[in-house]
Design goal:
This protein is an alpha/beta fold and 443 residues long. The chain is built from 14 helices and 14 strands. Helices cover 42% and strands 21% of the residues.
Length: 443
């Protein structure tokens, strides 16, 4: 591999290139027909065009640097509609753009991901329209994880073991927030995009921007401080959004710092992570209560759509009116049915049948009481007659008597019960005889 041209050698090369007007295809202006005026200009070595300058640089690089091998970590990746892959290759302090043409990419047997360490073979190329140089990758092989991915996985394992990413600790967002905080750069596109969507969907919401660096040295500390400050604001915020626009993994690295993750977990306010990078997930995304792919989507997630709410209200009003009309018609039909009944047309007739029934019951009760009294009287007379026939008074009336001993009234049935001088009482048919025993004659 040859190196760059330096010093006198470089001066000589560019002088020769300027003299020959090397174009983008590597052809010299000497091979093209030129007017006498153009030839005179060439001889006078007039000013160059931008295209001519880029052509010289392209030729110089292709002449001085042939194909080479390069190892680096894959940064941002973009795939064009034509199937070409544009990416950045980087190390700890520098980066360079690269392109993999579709024909080369189709021969790759692995998926290229950000953070992957790769070994590339290629050559330098100058892209004239932008005046930039890039590597045209002719072959690429995976070499494992890059240092940022290793750091990401190590910190993820630590925080995941502590339960900081558990879904059970995630909080639901209020449906109609009135105060929203946003920790981000006040000059970035993120807050602008967020406010645009918010203004269109739910403009009555108040937004408080808490400024913080979102990239570079000290960004993680400022983001964590912003989250902590948001939790102390009174009256309290309903939702806190933490995020920024898109970028490479290096640009977004502040949102992978442990300091930021722990601040998100400790926030007393539900946190939405809106780091604008849809491909990769940051640790801040995993710790937040809700993840939004972009700041614009965050606005869609945290507030309702006023047009949809209005449509819902109109729909509910229509349904309520329909239900009420149906109920009114139903009650009107029932009322008309009740009004057509005779009892309501002539209410005094309501008491005719009950009155007649009461009279009938009274008559039936009188008859029943009379029959019962007659039956009971007849039964009583029969029993009285039977009792009278069995009465001892009847026996006494036929000449018998009933004698008792005084003073205890003991019935005398034997002569041994009395002594001479005892007082006895004899019951006869017409009364009683009280006498004193003067003689006792046993049988």
């Amino acid at each position: 591999m040859t190196g760059f041209l330096w010093g006198d050698e470089a001066d000589e090369f560019f002088a020769e290139a300027k003299r020959k007007r090397i174009d983008l295809e590597g052809n010299t202006s000497e091979s093209r027909p030129r007017s006498s005026k153009g030839a005179a200009k060439d001889r006078e070595t007039g000013p160059l065009s931008v295209t001519e300058l880029n052509a010289w640089i392209k030729a110089a690089l292709e002449h001085s640097i042939p194909s080479f091998a390069l190892i680096g970590e894959v940064g941002s990746i973009t795939k064009s509609g034509a199937g070409h892959l544009y990416l950045t290759l980087k190390d700890a302090s520098n980066q360079i753009s690269a392109v993999i043409w579709r024909s080369t990419w189709e021969r790759c047997r692995f998926d290229i991901r950000e953070g992957m360490s790769v070994l590339c073979t290629g050559k330098l190329d100058v892209y004239g329209p932008r005046g930039s140089y890039q590597i045209v990758v002719q072959k690429i092989e995976p070499q494992g994880l890059g240092p940022l991915q290793i750091a990401f996985r190590k910190l993820y394992a630590k925080l995941e073991a502590e339960g900081l990413f558990l879904s059970e600790r995630k909080r639901a967002l209020p449906k109609f927030p009135s105060r929203i905080g946003f920790v981000t750069s006040p000059h970035g596109a993120a807050i602008h995009d967020f406010l645009e969507v918010l203004r269109r969907r739910w403009p009555q919401t108040n937004v408080l921007v808490i400024p913080a660096k979102v990239q570079g040295e000290g960004a993680a500390a400022e983001i964590a401080q912003g989250i902590e400050r948001a939790g102390r604001i009174t009256p309290p915020l309903d939702i806190l959004i933490v995020g920024r626009g898109g970028g490479s993994i290096e640009d977004l690295w502040a949102f992978n710092e442990e300091l930021v993750v722990r601040a998100v977990v400790a926030s007393p306010i539900p946190v939405v992570s809106a780091v604008g990078h849809e491909i990769d997930v940051t640790l801040c995304d995993l710790a937040a209560d809700v993840r939004a792919l972009t700041p614009s989507e965050a606005a869609e997630r945290v507030v309702p759509n006023r047009d949809e709410i209005a449509e819902t209200i109109i729909s509910l009003q229509s349904r309520l009116a329909m239900v009420m009309n149906h109920r009114v018609r139903e009650l009107d039909t029932r009322l008309k049915g009740l009004a057509s009944r005779p009892v309501l047309n002539n209410p005094e007739r309501l008491f005719d049948t009950p009155t007649q029934q009461l009279d009938e019951l009274e008559r039936m009760a009188g008859d029943a009481v009379g029959r019962s009294m007659d039956h009971r009287r007849h039964t009583f007379e029969k029993m009285a007659s039977r009792l009278d026939s069995m009465s001892p008074l009847k026996t006494l009336a036929r000449g018998y008597s009933l004698t008792t001993l005084e003073p205890n009234g003991q019935l005398i049935t034997d002569t041994s019960q009395v002594d001479i001088g005892s007082i006895i009482r004899s019951r006869v048919g017409t009364g009683e005889i009280r006498s004193q025993v003067v003689t006792v004659i046993p049988e």
